Amino acid sequence: MQPFTSVTGIAMPLDRADVDTDQIIPKQFLKRIERTGFGEFLFFDWRKADDFPLNRPEYAGAQILIAERNFGCGSSREHAPWALEDFGFRAVIAPSLADIFRTNCTKIGLLPVILSENQVRTLIDQTTAVPGASVTVDLTANEVVAPDGQRFGFEIEPDIRERLLHGWDDISLTLANDEVITDYEQTREREGPVTTMFA
Q1: Beta carbons of 5 and 139 less than 8 angstroms apart
Q2: 3-state secondary structure of 27
Q3: Is the model's pLDDT at 197 over the cut of 60?
Q4: How far is the C-alpha of 153 from the C-alpha of 146, rounded, in Å?
Q5: pTM to 2 decimals?
Q6: Cys staple from 119: which of 27, 46, 102, 115, with CB 3.0 to 4.6 Å?
Q7: Cα 11 from chain centroid?
């Protein structure tokens, strides 16, 4: 996955709480087994309204999504963060994120940032007042920089931070232990016939 160090880009405000994964990516689009191709269906039902932020040209190319509390609730579908990432978002900021959604984000390099309700309100207000305003999300400094220059620190677990900074997904972490795994498989005692051939 792509490493995440710092991103400065257009921030799109989504002034809604309890946004569930079925609104992020409706169930009728969950027929693909690849992680790509979901972005065009992001917020599919809500985008039928002309004034939905994702439809506004000022937010085109947004890389940072700012939402209200409990973003990503509902079913545990991995497709929700896949759709956000495929559309071009690199970070999601909210006062709270559903646990499984948050974990699924970290598995693909989409940075979940939790700030206080007041800080999120500041960001939503500023990016609504000035559509297309830039926000910086800096994982190296663990801070978000608002359009007006205010800085908001955030916390993230050290192991997750390390994985995101280096772009290590679960497969990368497994392959880092390839020699140990190969040695174990070649030398461990087995009951019954050996079904795996080693060079």
Answers
A1: yes
A2: helix
A3: no
A4: 11
A5: 0.87
A6: 115
A7: 14
